[in-house]
Amino acid sequence: MIRLEKRPQPSRALSLSTPIMAVLATFVFGGLLFAVLGKDPVEALQTIFWQPLFGEYAFYYRPQLLIKGAPLVLIAIGLSLGFKAGIWNIGAEGQYIMGAIFGAAVGLAFYPAEGWYIFPLMVFAGALGGWAWAMIPAFLKVRFGTNEILVSLMLVYVAEQFLASMSLGLLKNPEGYGFPGSRNLQQYMPAHNAELFAGSGMHWGVVAALIAVIFAYVLLAKHRLGFAIRVTGEAPRAARFSGVNPARLVLFCLGTSGLLAGLAGMFEVSGPSGQITIDFNVGYGFTAIIVAFLGRLHPIGILLAGGLMALTYIGGDIAQSNLGLPAAAIQVFQGMLLFFLLALDVLTHYRLRIGAAEAA
Amino acid sequence: MDLSAINPLLFVAGFLVAATPLIFAAIGELVVEKSGVLNLGVEGMMITGAICGFATAVETGSPLLGFAAAAVGGAALSLLFAFLTQVTLANQVASGLSLTLFGLGLSALIGQSYVGIKPPRLGDIDFGPLADIPVIGPILFTHDIILYLGIALVAGVWAVLKFTRAGLILRAVGESHDAAHALGYKVKRIRTAAILFGGACAGLGGAYISLIRVPQWTEGMTAGIGWIALALVVFASWKPWRALLGAYLFGGITQLQLNLQGAGVAIPVEYLAMSPYIITIIVLVVLSADKSAAPASLGRTFHASN
């Protein structure tokens, strides 16, 4: 009989090693999944995790890593603040969409004007869009006690419909021969989030993601607000006694995560994606949830986890075209990773004891 | 715009159909939450049920076997959730989310070869002359057996929770797992059973979408219905009949907006399609002031040593 015995202190060593164990377990079971699908598991895993980094065409894929990783890290950093405090924003996908729409709308409004101020204004608008969208669940939670999980999630569907409406209506390219979708911002220089060094994949979104990591690290480690977040998550009652205002914390955590998700959307639409289209969003807002947990809600961890997740996206694309591995298999692979992570997390907080329970 | 194009009889019969997936998912989740567990994986279990049911119905030619497979598929996925939350004591919110993410991926993977196929049709029950009664006949007596099963399930859950010992134990576990444990009840086992029941119900609800309501398979076709079901449980204050009422309300709204789209109302399609989600939020806001009906142990992890 295996029993669980609560540790007096969570184990630090295991806290660091369980994500690695989860990744290894996912390799094994993911490999099995690929084998079931009739692919050589070793070849599939090698294609996904080795090719993009060290393969023949790595020079092309490495920049992609930054392009896919930046929005994931940016969103996950915001989410992690709330998750730490038990405030669950799972509508980052919607905030990402709204940030993109706001940012693109401002850029398109200036078309075809020239000016250095256009891009900064778009950044501001993108952040505002995401922030405002996240403030809806935040405000409703603070004012009426409404469940933020459900409201933020519902708003994803609303945002998706709004995106469809925008790309077919207001933001549609007037010179687009009737096709849905906005003008391509990549062809409008003042609004283009271009690579900072050609061919590096480094765009302003990557810079923003790195700043967000540092910001979150300092906030959590040094600032009083970071302390409030951590205490609220671990002991809500103690937090209240220590003078934490729960309402302000909700507004801050949801607002910040919305703002960062909005920025991610804005950098994506003005850079790698280029235009507002009906299927602009590809699920970064949901994958970022996995990234946040995989990174153990720690800024540095999230940076690494974001890189790994980006790798599965890129490697998955390669495996799709080279080996015919279905895209959904990668999604299952990512979901599996989260399962193992959550399951193994028990080891951080509990000891396994083998033997019969003592009489209490 | 031509509102007269909406046939009131077809509309009512249609919204009963639209409400049925919600009834299944909501009543299942209601039982889970009554046992003190919050499973946010409803969407994932529904979509898994939708594809399991669809694939089985197509392969065997029997829609009823499809529904059985959907219940098994939903329950199998919920078993993962039960393992995470009851055995490894993982956070319920995170586990539920992971279930949804995993279920969406898994269903897309299974469903690849089923896109664009028509499933076998489940016939309506033959009520004989009852179906010929004006107005009532076409509304109430022209449906398939699963729709009636949904209503029977609500009645069954209500009766079990209210009148039986099993229902009392389930509620006790949900209100205070420590007290229930002290009385000698196996908290984890009871919760696991409730989670499996919830998974089976969600699976059935999902299959109702893919086999009857739509009927075909498309990726992510549940489109948030699982989440609306979660909201419905709050709306219903954890009372079965209120959940049924709520499901009809949402079914009605969904059907109405579809009919309005069809009738060519001046409101753009996208804004009509938003409406069920926005109304869910409004309902949540109106009802969230009173949380007293929620099971007291909802969402809390139980470990005997605590």
From TrEMBL, chain B:
Topological category with respect to the lipid bilayer: Multi-pass membrane protein
Cellular compartment(s): Cell membrane
UniProtKB keywords: Cell membrane, Membrane, Transmembrane, Transmembrane helix
This protein's GO CC annotations: plasma membrane
Record has Transmembrane as a keyword: yes
Superkingdom to which the source organism belongs: Bacteria
InterPro entries membership: ABC_transp_permease (IPR001851)
Main subcellular localisation: membrane
CDD domains xref list: TM_PBP1_transp_TpRbsC_like (cd06580)
Biological classification of the source: Bacteria, Pseudomonadati, Pseudomonadota, Alphaproteobacteria, Rhodobacterales
Organism annotation: Sulfitobacter delicatus
UniProt-recorded name of the protein: Nucleoside ABC transporter membrane protein
Signal peptide: none
Gene Ontology MF: a single term: transmembrane transporter activity
Annotated transmembrane regions: 6-25, 37-58, 64-84, 96-115, 135-161, 193-214, 220-238, 245-265, 271-289
